[in-house]
Amino acid sequence: MSPRALIAEDEPLLATQLKALLTEAWPELEVVHVAASGSEALDKLLELKPDVAFLDIRMPGLSGLEVAEELADRLEPGARPPAIVFVTAYDEFALKAFELAAVDYLLKPVSAERLVRSVERLKSALAQPMGLDTLLAQLRAVMATPAGAEPLRHIQAGVGTSVRMIALEEVCYFRAGDKYTAVATRDGGEALIRTPLKELLARLPPARFRQVHRGSIVNLDEVAEALRDDAGRVTLHLKHRKETLPVSRLYAELFRQM
Protein backbone atom coordinates (compact mmCIF):
# COMPACT_ATOMS: atom_id res chain seq x y z
CA MET A 1 0.00 0.00 0.00
CA SER A 2 1.12 3.57 -0.68
CA PRO A 3 2.25 5.53 2.39
CA ARG A 4 -0.25 8.08 3.68
CA ALA A 5 0.41 11.47 5.26
CA LEU A 6 -1.32 14.24 7.16
CA ILE A 7 -0.26 17.89 7.02
CA ALA A 8 -1.13 20.21 9.91
CA GLU A 9 -0.59 23.85 8.91
CA ASP A 10 -2.87 26.80 9.64
CA GLU A 11 -1.49 28.99 6.81
CA PRO A 12 -3.19 27.78 3.59
CA LEU A 13 -0.44 28.96 1.24
CA LEU A 14 2.26 27.14 3.23
CA ALA A 15 0.12 24.00 3.41
CA THR A 16 -0.42 24.08 -0.37
CA GLN A 17 3.29 24.64 -0.95
CA LEU A 18 4.30 21.72 1.27
CA LYS A 19 1.77 19.43 -0.40
CA ALA A 20 3.08 20.39 -3.86
CA LEU A 21 6.70 19.86 -2.84
CA LEU A 22 5.80 16.45 -1.38
CA THR A 23 4.16 15.45 -4.65
CA GLU A 24 7.46 16.11 -6.44
CA ALA A 25 9.74 14.60 -3.80
CA TRP A 26 7.59 11.56 -2.97
CA PRO A 27 5.05 10.80 -5.72
CA GLU A 28 3.88 7.60 -4.00
CA LEU A 29 2.86 9.47 -0.85
CA GLU A 30 -0.86 10.17 -0.50
CA VAL A 31 -1.75 13.26 1.53
CA VAL A 32 -5.02 12.16 3.11
CA HIS A 33 -5.82 15.37 5.00
CA VAL A 34 -4.64 18.95 5.56
CA ALA A 35 -5.61 20.23 9.02
CA ALA A 36 -5.88 23.93 9.82
CA SER A 37 -5.63 23.59 13.62
CA GLY A 38 -4.07 21.39 16.24
CA SER A 39 -7.41 20.00 17.39
CA GLU A 40 -8.39 19.06 13.84
CA ALA A 41 -4.99 17.44 13.30
CA LEU A 42 -5.37 15.31 16.42
CA ASP A 43 -8.87 14.15 15.46
CA LYS A 44 -7.78 13.21 11.94
CA LEU A 45 -4.61 11.45 13.14
CA LEU A 46 -6.74 9.23 15.36
CA GLU A 47 -9.35 8.68 12.66
CA LEU A 48 -7.20 8.19 9.55
CA LYS A 49 -4.05 6.69 11.14
CA PRO A 50 -1.57 8.01 8.54
CA ASP A 51 1.98 6.74 8.29
CA VAL A 52 3.52 10.22 8.39
CA ALA A 53 2.51 13.51 10.04
CA PHE A 54 3.91 16.96 9.25
CA LEU A 55 3.02 19.08 12.31
CA ASP A 56 3.40 22.84 12.44
CA ILE A 57 4.79 23.89 15.81
CA ARG A 58 2.54 26.95 16.14
CA MET A 59 -1.14 26.33 15.39
CA PRO A 60 -4.45 27.54 16.82
CA GLY A 61 -5.60 25.44 19.75
CA LEU A 62 -2.93 22.79 20.20
CA SER A 63 0.68 23.23 19.11
CA GLY A 64 2.38 20.55 17.04
CA LEU A 65 4.18 19.27 20.13
CA GLU A 66 0.92 19.15 22.07
CA VAL A 67 -0.74 17.24 19.23
CA ALA A 68 2.06 14.66 19.33
CA GLU A 69 1.81 14.37 23.11
CA GLU A 70 -1.98 13.97 23.08
CA LEU A 71 -1.75 11.47 20.23
CA ALA A 72 0.71 9.35 22.21
CA ASP A 73 -1.64 9.46 25.17
CA ARG A 74 -4.68 8.33 23.17
CA LEU A 75 -3.11 5.53 21.14
CA GLU A 76 -4.07 2.03 22.20
CA PRO A 77 -1.30 -0.10 23.73
CA GLY A 78 0.73 -1.66 20.94
CA ALA A 79 -0.51 0.84 18.34
CA ARG A 80 2.11 2.20 15.95
CA PRO A 81 2.45 6.01 15.89
CA PRO A 82 3.14 7.89 12.66
CA ALA A 83 6.60 9.12 11.79
CA ILE A 84 6.50 12.80 12.75
CA VAL A 85 8.21 15.78 11.15
CA PHE A 86 7.84 19.11 12.94
CA VAL A 87 7.62 22.24 10.81
CA THR A 88 8.85 25.42 12.45
CA ALA A 89 9.99 28.97 11.89
CA TYR A 90 13.58 29.62 12.91
CA ASP A 91 14.17 29.13 16.63
CA GLU A 92 17.67 28.17 17.72
CA PHE A 93 16.58 26.40 20.89
CA ALA A 94 13.84 24.44 19.14
CA LEU A 95 16.14 23.27 16.36
CA LYS A 96 18.81 22.17 18.84
CA ALA A 97 16.16 20.30 20.85
CA PHE A 98 14.93 18.47 17.74
CA GLU A 99 18.47 17.48 16.77
CA LEU A 100 19.30 16.18 20.25
CA ALA A 101 16.07 14.16 20.29
CA ALA A 102 16.72 12.72 16.80
CA VAL A 103 13.40 14.17 15.61
CA ASP A 104 13.19 15.41 12.04
CA TYR A 105 12.11 18.98 11.37
CA LEU A 106 11.58 21.34 8.44
CA LEU A 107 12.34 25.03 8.57
CA LYS A 108 9.84 27.50 7.12
CA PRO A 109 9.70 28.28 4.26
CA VAL A 110 10.29 24.64 3.34
CA SER A 111 12.86 24.15 0.59
CA ALA A 112 12.69 21.37 -1.98
CA GLU A 113 16.27 20.29 -1.22
CA ARG A 114 15.68 19.98 2.54
CA LEU A 115 12.40 18.16 1.98
CA VAL A 116 14.14 15.54 -0.19
CA ARG A 117 16.47 14.75 2.72
CA SER A 118 13.51 14.52 5.08
CA VAL A 119 11.71 12.16 2.69
CA GLU A 120 14.72 9.84 2.64
CA ARG A 121 14.71 9.76 6.45
CA LEU A 122 11.00 9.06 6.48
CA LYS A 123 11.33 6.18 4.04
CA SER A 124 13.98 4.63 6.28
CA ALA A 125 11.78 5.18 9.33
CA LEU A 126 8.79 3.50 7.69
CA ALA A 127 10.96 0.51 6.78
CA GLN A 128 11.61 0.03 10.51
CA PRO A 129 8.60 1.62 12.24
CA MET A 130 9.16 2.95 15.75
CA GLY A 131 7.02 2.00 18.69
CA LEU A 132 5.19 4.22 21.12
CA ASP A 133 8.05 4.10 23.65
CA THR A 134 10.43 5.60 21.07
CA LEU A 135 8.03 8.42 20.29
CA LEU A 136 7.61 9.17 24.00
CA ALA A 137 11.38 9.24 24.52
CA GLN A 138 11.78 11.67 21.62
CA LEU A 139 9.06 13.97 22.95
CA ARG A 140 10.56 13.98 26.45
CA ALA A 141 13.90 15.05 24.98
CA VAL A 142 12.35 17.80 22.84
CA MET A 143 10.21 19.16 25.66
CA ALA A 144 12.90 19.21 28.35
CA THR A 145 12.68 22.48 30.26
CA PRO A 146 15.59 24.87 29.59
CA ALA A 147 17.65 25.81 32.63
CA GLY A 148 18.60 29.30 33.73
CA ALA A 149 15.22 30.94 34.42
CA GLU A 150 14.94 32.93 37.64
CA PRO A 151 13.32 30.65 40.28
CA LEU A 152 10.03 31.58 41.90
CA ARG A 153 9.72 31.88 45.68
CA HIS A 154 6.00 32.53 45.79
CA ILE A 155 3.03 32.95 43.44
CA GLN A 156 1.23 36.27 42.99
CA ALA A 157 -2.28 35.23 41.99
CA GLY A 158 -5.58 36.97 41.46
CA VAL A 159 -8.49 36.09 43.74
CA GLY A 160 -11.48 38.23 42.82
CA THR A 161 -10.28 41.84 42.92
CA SER A 162 -7.30 41.14 45.20
CA VAL A 163 -3.82 39.70 44.71
CA ARG A 164 -2.89 36.77 46.94
CA MET A 165 0.71 35.84 47.79
CA ILE A 166 0.90 32.03 47.79
CA ALA A 167 3.92 30.16 49.13
CA LEU A 168 5.05 27.36 46.82
CA GLU A 169 4.57 24.73 49.52
CA GLU A 170 0.87 25.68 49.64
CA VAL A 171 0.36 24.84 45.95
CA CYS A 172 -1.08 21.40 45.13
CA TYR A 173 -1.06 21.79 41.35
CA PHE A 174 -1.29 24.22 38.43
CA ARG A 175 -3.83 23.71 35.64
CA ALA A 176 -3.75 25.48 32.26
CA GLY A 177 -6.88 27.25 31.02
CA ASP A 178 -7.72 29.18 27.86
CA LYS A 179 -6.40 32.53 29.09
CA TYR A 180 -5.20 31.86 32.63
CA THR A 181 -3.41 29.24 34.70
CA ALA A 182 -5.31 28.06 37.79
CA VAL A 183 -3.40 27.61 41.06
CA ALA A 184 -5.01 24.95 43.29
CA THR A 185 -3.95 25.26 46.93
CA ARG A 186 -3.93 22.99 49.98
CA ASP A 187 -6.83 24.85 51.62
CA GLY A 188 -9.14 23.87 48.75
CA GLY A 189 -9.01 27.28 47.12
CA GLU A 190 -8.15 28.28 43.56
CA ALA A 191 -6.52 31.43 42.20
CA LEU A 192 -5.57 32.62 38.70
CA ILE A 193 -2.29 33.75 37.14
CA ARG A 194 -1.43 34.86 33.60
CA THR A 195 1.86 32.96 33.31
CA PRO A 196 1.65 30.12 30.73
CA LEU A 197 2.32 26.63 32.04
CA LYS A 198 5.57 26.08 30.12
CA GLU A 199 7.03 29.40 31.27
CA LEU A 200 5.95 28.64 34.82
CA LEU A 201 7.57 25.20 34.80
CA ALA A 202 10.96 26.71 33.95
CA ARG A 203 10.83 28.76 37.18
CA LEU A 204 9.64 26.07 39.61
CA PRO A 205 11.95 23.79 41.67
CA PRO A 206 12.19 20.61 39.53
CA ALA A 207 12.65 18.34 42.54
CA ARG A 208 9.19 19.30 43.79
CA PHE A 209 7.11 20.41 40.79
CA ARG A 210 6.76 18.20 37.73
CA GLN A 211 4.58 18.34 34.66
CA VAL A 212 2.26 15.32 34.52
CA HIS A 213 0.04 16.31 31.60
CA ARG A 214 0.20 18.93 28.86
CA GLY A 215 -2.26 20.93 30.97
CA SER A 216 -1.05 20.39 34.54
CA ILE A 217 1.94 20.60 36.89
CA VAL A 218 1.77 18.87 40.28
CA ASN A 219 3.57 19.40 43.56
CA LEU A 220 5.02 15.92 44.19
CA ASP A 221 4.86 16.53 47.95
CA GLU A 222 1.07 16.69 47.59
CA VAL A 223 0.70 13.32 45.84
CA ALA A 224 -0.81 10.69 48.14
CA GLU A 225 -0.72 7.83 45.62
CA ALA A 226 -0.48 7.08 41.92
CA LEU A 227 -2.92 4.44 40.67
CA ARG A 228 -2.35 2.57 37.41
CA ASP A 229 -5.32 0.93 35.65
CA ASP A 230 -5.34 -2.21 33.47
CA ALA A 231 -4.56 -0.11 30.38
CA GLY A 232 -1.49 1.36 32.09
CA ARG A 233 -2.99 4.84 32.57
CA VAL A 234 -1.94 6.62 35.76
CA THR A 235 -4.16 8.79 38.00
CA LEU A 236 -2.88 10.84 40.94
CA HIS A 237 -4.74 11.13 44.25
CA LEU A 238 -3.79 14.16 46.32
CA LYS A 239 -3.33 14.64 50.07
CA HIS A 240 -5.31 17.83 50.46
CA ARG A 241 -7.65 17.90 47.43
CA LYS A 242 -10.56 15.61 46.51
CA GLU A 243 -10.09 15.81 42.72
CA THR A 244 -7.73 13.46 40.90
CA LEU A 245 -5.19 14.32 38.19
CA PRO A 246 -4.66 12.22 35.04
CA VAL A 247 -1.06 11.56 34.02
CA SER A 248 -0.28 11.37 30.31
CA ARG A 249 1.91 8.59 28.96
CA LEU A 250 4.66 11.10 28.35
CA TYR A 251 5.11 11.57 32.10
CA ALA A 252 3.91 8.22 33.50
CA GLU A 253 7.49 7.02 34.07
CA LEU A 254 7.73 9.49 36.96
CA PHE A 255 5.49 7.18 38.94
CA ARG A 256 7.06 3.79 38.31
CA GLN A 257 7.74 1.70 41.39
CA MET A 258 11.27 2.19 42.78
Describe the structure.
This protein has about 260 residues and is of the alpha/beta class. The protein folds into 2 domains: about 5-140, 3-Layer(aba) Sandwich (Rossmann fold), CATH 3.40.50; about 155-255, LytTr DNA-binding domain (OB fold (Dihydrolipoamide Acetyltransferase, E2P)). Helix content is about 30%, strand content about 30%. The protein is built from 7 helices and 15 strands. The protein has helices at about 10-25, 40-50, 65-75, 90-100, 110-125, 130-140, 195-200; strands at about 5-10, 30-35, 50-55, 85-90, 105, 155-160, 160-165, 170-175, 180-185, 190-195, 210-215, 215-220, 225-230, 235-240, 245. The strands form 4 sheets. Strands 2-1-3-4-5 form a 5-stranded parallel sheet, sandwiched between helices. It has a 5-stranded antiparallel sheet with strand order 10-9-8-12-11, with no helix packed on it. Helix 3 (about 65-75) runs antiparallel to helix 6 (about 130-140). The longest helix is centred in the middle third of the chain and has 16 residues, at about 110-125. The chain is elongated. The termini are far apart.
Secondary-structure map:
Layout: E1 4-8, H1 12-25, E2 30-35, H2 38-48, E3 52-56, H3 64-74, E4 83-88, H4 92-100, E5 104-107, H5 112-127, H6 132-142, E6 154-159, E7 162-167, E8 171-176, E9 181-185, E10 190-193, H7 197-201, E11 209-213, E12 216-219, E13 223-228, E14 234-238, E15 244-247
Parallel strand pairs: 1-2, 1-3, 3-4, 4-5
Antiparallel strand pairs: 6-7, 8-9, 8-12, 9-10, 11-12, 13-14, 14-15
Helix pairs in contact: 2-3, 3-6
